[in-house]
User: What shape does this take?
Amino acid sequence: MTREEREREISAAIREKADYHRAPDSLAADVLASLPPEPEPRPRAPKWRFWLAQGAAFAGVAILTFAVTVAWLRPGEDERRAEDILAAHVRATLGNHLIDVASSDQHTVKPWLSARLPYSPPVADLSAQGYVLAGARIDRAGGQPVAVLVYKRRQHVIDAYVWPVRETVNRVELSRDGFQLERFGAGSWAWWLVSDLNRNELDDLGRLLAAAP
Assistant: This one.
């Protein structure tokens, strides 16, 4: 007889001869009482709290997006100043009011400007380099009166805005509607040039003004 056959025989004998007793009802109660209590279900948050949290998150993203967009679209100080100077240049050109004091003599132009402004701007005679001083005027840039030296190169007019500054002025080059603009610093002075002259010749004038005493 194999081991498996012997185990089946023993199992059958147990079923035939063993005594069976029904478990008392109290046993089931005792077993249930000994079990740990089930954790109470966590109350679900009201739906309005969920939507409030979602709305706050969406509002935060919307505000951040709006702030970034406005910052990106808002013109910087250079852009605003360039727009002011270009508008003033066009206004003076169309209004035929480019010059308040007409003179190629720097010793005439400089005192005239100094008497009408709280500073004495540098005035350079660059006629030997092909940039003829035609005179000057007082205009406004950034809401303040500033000196404008007017130079001519062939048939082109160049406005050179100049005012004193304390901070370092970085070089900036811009193009707007067929006009070239350039900003640079020289010593304690900030310069803005604007003209329909080509970029290379405008750069040359900027270098000459920056190097002038």
User: Anything to note?
Assistant: The two ends are 124 Å apart (CA to CA). The beta strands are 101-102, 132-141, 144-153, 156-164, 172-176, 179-186, 189-195. The helical segments are 3-17, 25-34, 47-73, 77-94, 106-114, 199-211.
